[in-house]
């Protein structure tokens, strides 16, 4: 059960009386409000550590990973301002932020179950898009919870607690496959084209951590009605304007196309497989280095050739 809120002493925020300012919260309530970020960061950690491995297991070449990873920045660019805009206008039995925490966590858990079981690169890519979109839905409202529920004097504490949970979740996610292998004895190898059990089970455990942590925050946190929040900050608009949201989305789209244009302009020429130049071109190292070709030959310059236990590498003319 929540402990009763500790009332602020002295004048409230912005010089307003105490009845208008947010009440001070106990440390336990601040930790309850922020602990859901532990599960969110476990998901981010599992994604960052294992996604490339999943794609490569399904046959993706190294040089193709970047375009597959574009799901993360694009969804963040679009979803975060959109969810912030929508949650500012939401109020119901679960408040304004908690419906998005819960809905995003449920969708993320489904994506965590689907991604390590994908049978093709395209299925894994779709799962990644769902994963990154839904985890952004769950992550974005946590920042707003601190601003909504804590007085200015406690917000630094709230963000510090969030940082603690973020770091703890990242460490656990990074170590989870290793822990499953060395502490539990789960196999770390699998047939070609199949993920090791340690990776799949790590994703399942991540889903459990996410749902458990977010449910704890949703069940133990209460939110103040919008009219109280607006009374705290009479100089701040109640919600972002439609024009402001449109400007954010338009700017994001412009930056996406600008990035694609810059990337296209920097693409090296003459690195195609059909090129018959007699010289070894350095661009092969940058754009086709260590690619697992059908022939097992990696296109690399002479100086970079070597043999490894995983890829048989020989020099090949660009």
Chain-wise SSE layout:
Elements (H helix, E strand, L loop, with lengths): L26 H8 L1 H22 L7 H4 L2 H18 L9 H17 L6 H29 L2 H33 L12 H24 L5 H7 L9 H24 L17 H6 L30
Helix pairs in contact: 1-8, 2-6, 2-7, 2-8, 4-6, 4-10, 5-6, 5-8, 7-8
Second-tier CATH architecture of the largest domain? Up-down Bundle
Q: Which descriptor suits the 3D outline? A: globular
Largest sheet descriptor: none
Whole-number mean pLDDT: 76
CATH class of the largest domain: Mainly Alpha
CATH topology of the largest domain: Growth Hormone, Chain: A
Distance between the ends: 67 Å
Tally of helical runs: 11
Please mark out the parts with pLDDT under 50 across 5 or more consecutive residues, or reply none.
1-19, 270-318
C-alpha Rg (nearest Å): 24 Å
Element-by-element helix/strand order:
HHHHHHHHHHH
- Structural class, judged by helices and strands? mainly alpha
What does the model show?
The protein is mainly α. It has 2 domains: 216 residues, Growth Hormone, Chain: A (Up-down Bundle), CATH 1.20.1250; 47 residues, no CATH class. It contains 11 helices and no strands. Helix 1 crosses helix 8 and helix 4 runs antiparallel to helix 10. The N and C termini lie far apart (67 Å). The N terminus and C terminus are likely disordered.
